[in-house]
Design goal:
Elements (H helix, E strand, L loop, with lengths): L1 H11 L7 H24 L8 H28 L17 H17 L3 H15 L9 H6 L1 H9 L2 H5 L4 H19 L1 H4 L20 H23 L6 H4 L4 H17 L2 H7 L1 H20 L1 H11 L1 H20 L7 H10 L1
């Protein structure tokens, strides 16, 4: 839940005017929060196998909502925002690339698990480096392969590995590591640029040439890994209402883009130009509240039909079948025989 809240905050920061402090905060956040998000997704995908049930579940919960929300967001941008779009389904909107990527990663999972972990991680890093020389933009393949090392590392992790992050010494080291990431992102223009952290541009688009691109990509991957592990070491592990909201991560991810776009259409960035400091606090707080609003039970239930329509329909059908079976066979209900027997006796 904390990571998806940071996703909403990060996307809301794109409306802020250029400012050295704001740009540094943006670079710092994007250096590690999406790597952490992808790593956790890999850890939670370890049970993936190639069978009809698992593959259909991926189609139903990732590709179907992607197509629905992609079309809705495209319609919203055209008819509400007056934008002109081309090929918006095959070029995902900026929040939605993750659904396509997660589907691809999960389909690769059985193959990844079939090879030794060091080999899998090495091949993932190689794919991430290699895709930078390509300019293929179809379905954001650059991000699919760019972030692949973090997914594979999460896939290779075990519970005992995560337990190692609980130690006090590790947590102290995590604070130092995040300070190091803060320093590195503060000087990112000296060795790269912020766009490297997004994994969505080719080396040519980044105006980078020669073999130095390999060193930069590896440095970005390493910084993302250090930041993600530091986050996992420091994040609280207590349960509660905030933790429970994490079950609605998909709802938050799918629908926050409409609010960000509407803010743009209403001219909110113009107000931010005149209120830089206040605007940062207002934007950040509003983004956090938006994440909580979308994850709230009443909102998530209402939007759940768009996030997983086929699953909701199947649940309704299953309840109908169960009800029909109960009516047809009343003695299957605990206590039914005794109740019917007592009625006959009277």
């Amino acid at each position: 839940m904390l990571l998806v809240t940071l996703v909403v905050i990060g996307h809301s920061w794109t409306m802020l005017p250029d400012d050295p402090t704001t740009d540094h905060l943006y670079a710092f956040l994007y250096a590690w929060h999406m790597p952490a998000f992808v790593m956790i997704s890999g850890y939670l995908s370890r049970s993936m196998v190639w069978n009809r049930t698992k593959v259909w579940y991926g189609v139903r919960t990732l590709l179907v909502p992607y197509l629905i929300v992609e079309c809705l967001l495209g319609w919203f941008r055209i008819h509400v925002g007056g934008e002109h779009l081309e090929d918006f389904v095959v070029h995902p909107h900026w929040p939605l690339w993750f659904l396509v990527a997660l589907f691809c990663w999960r389909m690769l999972t059985p193959a990844v698990k079939a090879v030794p972990r060091p080999t899998a991680i090495g091949l993932a890093v190689l794919a991430s480096v290699a895709i930078g020389w390509s300019s293929w933009e179809f379905l954001d393949i650059a991000r699919v392969l760019g972030f692949l090392p973090f997914f594979v590392i999460g896939l290779a992790a075990r519970k005992e590995h995560l337990e190692l992050l609980r130690g006090r010494a590790v947590q102290v080291a995590a604070v130092a590591a995040l300070l190091g990431v803060w320093w590195a992102t503060g000087h990112i223009d000296d060795w790269a640029q912020t766009d490297w952290l997004l994994f969505d541009s080719s080396y040519r688009d980044l105006d980078a040439h020669g073999w130095s691109v390999v060193a930069i990509r590896l440095a970005v991957i390493g910084m993302g890994l250090v930041g993600a592990l530091s986050f996992l070491a420091l994040v609280p592990r207590k349960g509660g209402w905030f933790t429970a909201m994490g079950a609605e991560t998909l709802i938050v991810y799918l629908f926050h883009g409409f609010f960000v776009k509407e803010s743009l259409y209403l001219g909110y960035p113009g107000w931010l130009e005149d209120h830089v400091v206040l605007g940062w606090f207002v934007t950040t707080a509003a983004a956090a509240v938006l994440a909580l609003f979308l994850a709230s039970p009443w909102v998530s239930r209402a939007l759940g039909w768009l996030a997983d329509p086929l699953g909701r329909i199947q649940q309704r059908l299953d309840r109908t079948v169960d009800l029909a079976a109960t009516v047809k066979e009343p003695y299957d209900v605990p206590g039914a025989r005794e109740l019917v027997g007592a009625g006959s006796h009277r």
